[in-house]
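User: I'm curious whether this sequence folds into something compact or stays loose and floppy. Could you predict its structure so I can see for myself?
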Amino acid sequence: MGLELLENNTYESKKDYIYRMIRKNIIDINLKPGEVMSENDIANTFETSRTPIREAFTRLANEELIEIYPQKGTFVSLIDIRRAQEAKFMRVNLEREIIRQACREFPDDILFQLEANINQQEFCVMKENYITIFDLDNEMHELIYRGCKMGRVWSAIRFVSGDYDRIRTLRLSSDTDWDAIIGDHKNIVSAIKEKDEEKGLKIISEHLTMIDRDVVLLKEKYPEYFKQ
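Assistant: Here's the prediction. I'll summarize afterward.
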């Protein structure tokens, strides 16, 4: 079990960093659904005691990303389609209202950040770096929520989106039309910039439900990752 680690942000505690890194490895499918997780191995990776690892495990269990069985062990949870559909329902309905607000009024400084984000996504497509595209995709949506002063709503969505996000990771790592995805992102930002509410609502609804078309294929390709 080799965890991929990023730098520790100066503003976060060690326990928050450990939680964030384990969670990211689960979402990125570096820790695969069904995989056994060892407290000792992870503690050695972070050169820490087992206490912050247990705390991270508790948080991840609350998000249903891991399952803890006394006397048996801790496992990365299998992807549950039902939970993913619930997260999608939440996102589609909330994000339509967010886009509606963004197309009416949106701060110029965050619009600039959105345009810079799209440029980075296009670069990552050329490099076929799907993990960074996934992170930039999330950052783009978070910027839109923040621009509408709805940052805590985004945090609430993220809490329930573990399975939805793992499906997105599998989708991006498979044979995916990345240009179409980036095209949607560009059109969403364009709709906000042009204050075109109708265009924004149409694109965001189609964009967030694209995942429906791929779930059956992904279950066939990775049956061991999904809860039956």
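Summary: The chain has a mean pLDDT of 92. The chain has two domains: 14-76, 81-225.
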